[in-house]
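Bit of a strange request maybe. I'm writing a small parser for structure token strings and I need a real example to test against, not something I typed by hand. Could someone generate the tokens for this chain?
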Amino acid sequence: MARKVVGFGEDDLRALAGAWSFERGLGYLDAVSGPEVGEGSVTAVVQGTDVYEVELTLGGDGGLSGWCDCPYGQEGNFCKHCVAVGLTVLRRAKTIPRQRAAARSRASGLEAWLSALSRDELLALVREQIAEDRGLRRRLELRAAAARSDLGTVRERILALIDPRPFARYGYVEYVDAPGYAQQVVEAAHAVRALTAGGQAAQAVGLAEEAIRVLGEAHEEIDDSDGAVGQAAVAVIEAHREACGVARPDSVRLAEWLVGQVLGDGNDVTDLDPLDYAEVLGPSGLARLRQLAAEARRRRPSGWAERYLMERLAKAEGDVDALVALYAQDLDLSGAAHLRIAEELESAGRADEALAWAERGLRDCAAETYIDGRLVDYVCARYAKAGRPVDVVEVRRDRFRAERSLAAYQQLGSAARAAQCWEAERVAALAVLREDARRERGGRYGGPVLIDALLDDGDVDAAWREAAGLADDRQWERLADVSRETHPAEALAVYLRMVDRLKEPTGDRAYEHLARLLLGARDCHRALETQEAFTDHLAGLRAELKRRRKLMGILDRYGL
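Reply from user aminoacidic:
Good idea to test on real output. This should exercise your parser:
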């Protein structure tokens, strides 16, 4: 019933927060105060390490989101404070309709009261507010200067808003101060828009470009981890583009400015796309843009920004051959560039050329241990679609022999089963892995892939035969886990050996692992009908480690 009234339930809160934050949120229910319920949102205050403001919002699609100004919440997480507010709302679900009605009534009453005020009364109210709210006063002063075309004051105020120095307490705008700075940048964008709306679009263009320059210079000194300043910079770019749309500045000069922004360091914050200005640039501006982009690419062929500019132009013009030529200049040994070329050609309806480029990628990268798996998948998918299962197996076999990984073994198995030739392929593949195991006495990241492959196939007997002297602890434990019933004596020996080694490490992770090993040992003893031996072993272990109270609690929880 609560979910129907509120629009979300405890499961939604748990899914958004995760088990850990959800459980911690339960401890903050008494810390929630002042919840206000609107049509699609709830706001409240939570007393934690500090006093935090929380807002929960229910989207039109029914999706729940939360915002909190605690450090964890500002990183974009659905924190324990959001959980506490959500649970508080659910517990008060019966009162929600009444609260929503009250909120509507308050809003309606405020609107009616404001509408009834005279001009002098409204002016007195605004004066009272700007006397108490410095931010509001600053915003209104800026709008007033824009309305009367006081360009000197507007420029001064915009540059003051963009200036990060008041927020840089230690010469650097820290994470906690970035949202406040971002809000000022948004105010600057509003001022630029006000100038445009007031018939001063040409002046707005110049001021926006000056603000963008300052933003670009300042960005390296700002911790914008949550992207707030970047989003605010986008608002300034949009205000600049709107002003250009009205003022219609010289298209060649605009193209030169745009290229300078893309190639300069400041584009890290603005992320400006020159093609967003295509309509304003017109044919002459776009021609100049292409010319400058080509010159920049010739000067610095390996430059990322130069390549990006050329790529955007080629895509905007639908010039697939230009894109192919561009990507072909930067072919690497991962096959990623070959894949991009293949995808562009396929999107253009040139499937044969696309496959040829992808096949070339496999040939060019054949000697590499690891390449972009998407390229391999691309080729195999097209071979399969064309009814060429034997060719799929050949590709997967080649990649397996290069990578010697479990994933490559599994992919070869899937392809060979589809081609009905897995039995022979498996024998050959296991022979390769067996030789690796004997030569390396281990795999690249632990025990040999051979053991993992045998376990993946469910060939437990073979895995036991090969494991001696080769398997690592992870593989031994997995082997024991899948063998408790079929090889209880061998599995028990593994568990006991690992239990003995885990007596020394401390901490929750080690204790949880130890408990899982003991559960496995208990199952083996049951299969062997030697439960008394396990009871004696466990009693001895508990006596030996009795001072570790956290471990004793975990063993109790597992019934050990």
